[in-house]
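$ ./design --mode recover --in tokens.txt
reading tokens...
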């Protein structure tokens, strides 16, 4: 059946900055999924694995290991923003993110994080994987960043997905307006909702924001009957201690729903190269990745406290 694209006269067709449309994902919702990564996030989690999605603007990254020093990028840059340094190629104070250096790099050492795409363009791409969704119970997931900072875009995309029989999922940090949640929740089949740290002061220290809005939104969303899987990035020495485990378990139980569960996401270091590419400091450079034994111990403790808990692989 042909897709019903949004046409002129049906309201403005939204667009957003997209960094990646990743097919065949098995960790971002039920079944096999295509994940759409949007830029912009209200949090600044020190362990974030996707720093390229923090700001809602295009940024240029430099991958030093791929650079051959040919100089084509400097010749193409009209802003004089290319530096002759081996490990710091971009003068961020001069760079306008025009992308000329990226287009002229022969070795993919320069990358543009973010491309503006319309809802129709994104849907045209994700619907090509529909055969995988149907065979696995999968669908489309929006992630980020925080995708609900683009709630109208997500709502329009999910309307198209549902018209075509495609399951929808949102990965959210919960630090968004109630209006955004209300707009997207009727169009969302399942929410993956982060509960990072329960102590408000500690939450502010490691994410830059209070957790009060997040917890209020979790209560509201749970009260609507929405399908929710709570998730927790498990960071050694930050939120894997007894106090946070007890507080998180108590919060989930307080929502009064037997179907709510928690999935732990053990800390890893796979995003560290992106910080270097963007000339950003990585706050947790000295922190070792969490071991399987540490994650299993935390999951066992949640189970003992009455919360169904699994560990993401």
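writing sequence...
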């Amino acid at each position: 059946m042909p897709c019903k694209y949004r046409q002129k006269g049906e309201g403005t067709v939204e667009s957003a900055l997209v960094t990646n449309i990743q097919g065949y994902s098995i960790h971002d919702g039920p079944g096999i999924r295509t994940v759409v990564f949007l830029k912009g996030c209200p949090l600044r989690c020190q362990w974030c694995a996707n720093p390229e999605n923090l700001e809602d603007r295009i940024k240029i990254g430099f991958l030093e290991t791929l650079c051959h020093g040919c100089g084509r990028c400097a010749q193409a840059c009209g802003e004089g923003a290319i530096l002759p340094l081996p490990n710091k190629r971009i003068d961020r104070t001069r760079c306008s993110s025009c992308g000329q250096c990226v287009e002229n790099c022969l070795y993919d050492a320069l990358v543009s994080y973010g491309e503006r795409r319309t809802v129709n363009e994104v849907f045209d791409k994700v619907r090509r994987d529909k055969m995988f969704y149907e065979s696995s119970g999968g669908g489309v997931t929006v992630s980020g960043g925080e995708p609900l900072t683009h709630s109208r875009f997500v709502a329009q995309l999910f309307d198209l997905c549902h018209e075509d029989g495609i399951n929808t999922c949102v990965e959210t940090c919960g630090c968004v307006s109630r209006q955004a949640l209300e707009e997207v929740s009727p169009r969302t089949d399942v929410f993956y909702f982060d509960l990072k740290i329960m102590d408000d002061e500690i939450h502010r220290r490691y994410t830059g924001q209070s957790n009060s809005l997040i917890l209020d939104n979790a209560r509201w969303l749970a009260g609507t009957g929405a399908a929710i899987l709570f998730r927790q990035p498990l960071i050694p020495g930050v939120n894997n201690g007894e106090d946070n485990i007890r507080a998180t378990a108590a919060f989930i139980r307080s929502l009064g729903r037997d179907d709510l569960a928690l999935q732990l996401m053990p800390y890893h270091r796979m995003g560290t190269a992106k910080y270097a590419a963007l000339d950003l400091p990585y706050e947790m450079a000295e922190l070792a990745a969490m071991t399987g034994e540490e994650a299993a111990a935390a999951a066992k403790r949640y189970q003992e406290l009455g919360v169904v808990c699994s560990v993401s692989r």
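exit 0
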